[in-house]
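User: For a benchmark we're assembling, each entry needs the component sequences followed by a predicted structure for the full assembly. Here are entry 17's components. Please fill in the structure.
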Amino acid sequence: MSTLSERPQHAVVGLPLPHESAALHVTGEALYTDDLVARTRDVLHAWPVQAPHAHARVTVLRVAPAYDVPGVVRVLTADDVPGVNDAGVKHDEPLFPSEVMFHGHAVCWVLGETQEAARLGAAAVEVDYEPLPALVTVREAIEAGSFQGAQRHLARGDADAALASAAHVFEGELEFAGQEHFYLETHASLALVDEAGQVFVQSSTQHPSETQEIVAHVLGLASHEVTVQCLRMGGGFGGKEMQPHGYAAIAALGARLTGRPVRLRLNRTQDITMSGKRHGFHARWRAGFDADGHIVALDATLTSDGGWSLDLSEPVMARAMCHIDNAYWIPDIRVDGRIAKTNKTSQTAFRGFGGPQGMMVIEDILGRCAPMLGVDPLELRRRNFYRSDHTTPYGQPVRHAERLEACWSQVLATGDVERRRTEIARFNAAHPHVKRGLAMTPVKFGISFNLTAFNQAGALVHVYKDGSVLINHGGTEMGQGLHTKMIQVAATTLGVPMSRVRLAPTRTDKVPNTSATAASSGADLNGAAIKNACEQILERLARVAAGRLGVSVPDVRFVDGAVRGLSARDERLSWEEVVHDAYMQRVQLWAAGFYRTEGLHWDSEAMYGEPFKYFAYGVAAAEVEVDGFTGAYTLRRVDIVHDVGDSLSPLVDIGQIEGGFVQGAGWLTLEDLRWDESDGPHRGRLATQSASTYKLPSFSEMPEVFHVTLLEKAHEDGAVYGSKAVGEPPLMLAFSVREALRQAAAAFGPAGTSVQLASPATPEAVYWALDRARAGHAAARVDVDGVPADREAPVPAVQGRG
Amino acid sequence: MSTPRITVNGDEVPLTGIAAHTTTLDWLRDRGLTGAKEGCAEGECGACSVLVARPGIDTATEWTAVNACLVPVAALDGQEVVTAEGLGRSTDLHPVQQELAVRGGSQCGYCTPGFVCSMAAEYYRPGRGSTGSGNGGGSTDHEHGPNGFDLHALSGNLCRCTGYRPIRDAAYALGLPADDDGLAARRTSPPPAPATTRVVADGAEFVRPADLAEALGLLAGHPEAEVVAGATDYGVEVNLRGARAPYVVAVDRLPELREFEVGDDAVHLGAALTLTEIERLLAGRVPLLDELFPQFASRLIRNGATLGGNLGTASPIGDAPPALLALDAEVVLTSQRGDRRVALADYFTGYRTTVRLPDELIRAVRIPLPQARLTAFHKIAKRRFDDISSVAVGYALDVVDGVVARASLGLGGVAATPLRALATEEALVGRPWTEPTVREAAAVLATEGTPMSDHRASASYRSAMLGQSLLRLHARTAREEAIA
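Assistant: Structure for entry 17:
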């Protein structure tokens, strides 16, 4: 066991604590970026001029009329950029574009004394456009051969040969939608310039270091002239990993040019129409099974809808390809991945980061094929689980694969699944117009950034003379409870009460060169860095204390604010005394901590290596009830057992699991991004660009009964205090809801009905699915006795939308 | 008319430097009260929820949660507002704040002050926890807690982080207000009377007249006037579409528009009563409306929205018209020329147009009595609650000796206006209420209107839902018969 994962007795980690800002949240005292505007004098407000075309060339930009609007101070255009006119790291995202690449693309920004003045000024700007042909759907892009970035290829064994000899082969096509982040706090930045011309940007960003880099390159400054701070975010979910940079740069540019603070806060419509989303995907697949229902081969081509620029589309695709196996052993496999370039917002990170899209493919395959194989879907999934002697298609051993089985059997038992399945069968037989379904799905999710370099973190820990502790780290707080965990880690390592530890806001001038708070890695990376800094300090303090206590240095213990030798009966010094002594002896009381995840390697071209430190596991059982008249449904009960290692903070972790699950259910069943795909005047416009048209889960979508249990005895060797990451994996437990809907829809048809379900499975989609089942749709019925006949008669392609 | 002023968290503050359209949310935030947030600016997310002292039904005053992003601040002249900051401080939490904080009810915290206010309104609802008073009293089901907490109180608040379970648990753990709770005590004395208000700025004017006569005079002189009650639609136009009406007349507190009467031949519902008030005043006496209320937007919206507003905007997807059409309701229009009554079926003339003249106000809606015995409201939407309907159907039928004696069906979402399903009614009346007849009639219903495809639903789904709706109603009556 490494010392990183070793947990002392009386640890503060592991206690179920509320969010460290909970009291500030509930009273409205917690400050978010845009709340600072009321505390800042002479702020200018920014407003974009958004293009009404999906693709067009800007032929003329007349900004003069804006200056006739009272209160307009400045119009920012490409000519104002002293550095690089680019908002991304791939240099394919002009901040002020001359070519409009998506409907709503901002071509310039207006600064006004009030938001109203800026808005009216933006309306007064005159732009002439030369419309160009636009690709709006992923299918259009495929047909046109419009791709961007690298095309990757992942393979093991000989998929063709295995398919040729498989007992059953099925093929299909699947298109499924993206997802809007809909963090409650829209993108916001507030930029100021100090007396030396240095730029200070407060930004709602998951990646302050990269925001800093982009602001610097737009302004033509060095990084040390730009500081970015993030107090906290009102939700991020990946949507603030890459996307805030351009907005921060606009605000900073405005502040540099006017000398006044500039606030840029998108309203909801601007945020939805301009910022990137989860990638929608298209998948084409062939899957082979042996006579016992074991998957023997998979051949799949994944095409993501990347939108207009590359953004994070390449790593998202890599993660999708690395998660198409989910929890299942697939001996022979070939996966091709490519990124479509379309005239849409630039799709980006979103909780799961391609993992959900990869898993969607295999879970859809299993859900559709189970009836055709004549195998119960629960059994089909369990039968194909990884075992611990297996490796993934990219060559990583599946360590702790037995936890899949452990989670599964615990859900079966505590969820009373078999009895309920019998009850459901009885219910369905007695109710012609209402059917219930219960499904179980597993999750195996790799933790670490695929790009190895990102797996590093820094921290800065100060111990002041009075014994109080101030911690800084590179991670950002977006509601996931990272700061809560970090305070717990520091208190545990230093052996002081939590009340002695305060956490200061994330700033790039405290901890430099940080990675994004993303990939669920925030606690793993920053926690280890904080622990490292604290241990450096302890090592020095131990020498000070050893002298006074008359014990040898390795025997000094720091527990609950006291310092003593190994025996609890020995003399005790207070933490404060030791700190004071250390100061008087001129011992350094602060330290910079650092951490790099060991043992990772990844060849991104060969798609081979061990990109993940470990896998997080979980299993969910979901029960739904579907109304046969409308397709409307309720989520009756959900049982989850999830592996978070030894939890750092159980209340926080359970919150992440529940919230992730509901967000995943939203993606799969409710949230419906609709773009104008017609050839009309609004082609490429997002039709669902507000809260009234893009519906998030609300109270009515919460499971009526919701049991979440953390897997016990789940110590993770090699991670901070034996814990595991939790941010993303639970989102994918929501496949259980989609599969339960499939079960319920199938129950309207004859036994053995295979159901195709569009995604998201809105009531309309469920209605068409059950309507086809009810009609005993010829293609939905499969003769399971007909041996390899299904090879000649592949099931029809899955339709993208009902 | 004195300088407009508002009491916020106990402090009386003059309303200076505001425009006619300035929202309560922007005004609060500019004052440094940044607890309330803008999440959507259209009354969908509730992050801006604040409490307003309003006339009560069971007590003199009720703390009513509203969307601060929608209500013009000028409309709160003379009123009392409480925000999350006013309920408690981080060193001295309000019981609602305490429960949310310790149970993990906040993650990112951005929606939280809004949840706190919506939850506090339900915490202070008179009669919560006892049986009988309004919905929710005493019963425990998936939408009500053992403490009488009605979860619908939070239906207008969105949280993107928690998945809601801990928020529900916090709500269900709430006790009753303590004896020394100032906001609880405030309920026993009347709320501030509506002020007469006039705000003029940037060439626009916001006016709250003292009475109906003055209001009608203003309308007669200002045909361009925008009539505003709960502002649940007006506020969206202001925030999302930049609408800046030059002349706004607030009618939501006019006593003549707030009359309620259950007579022998009709129920009279004042046009400026909020949907929440109507729900509570009717107390189940119009079962069709009882079915409608929980499906009509959210509690936050129903606390502001009025029938007058819903009929005034004349949206083809408004939820009230299909129900009121089925109930054979009449609209009472009033002007300086006097009152006139129009059957709702004759009221709509086209997409968002009606027979109402610019100088007329909707005074009331009248529902004739006796009501049909078999009524239902079917709303089809993506989300179960707080969504806009793809299709809505209101039913009012009498089945006598197994034969349909009377049938009124109101439809929404299938044409440019709400409409009566006349062909379906004809296919039902005089026929036996049996599955064969209903199947035939359902086929007719599926062809009513001219549904279109949009982001909410496809045209074919909308048509299918019309037909399925009647089958569903029949299945319900068959089931009830079997049980009876």
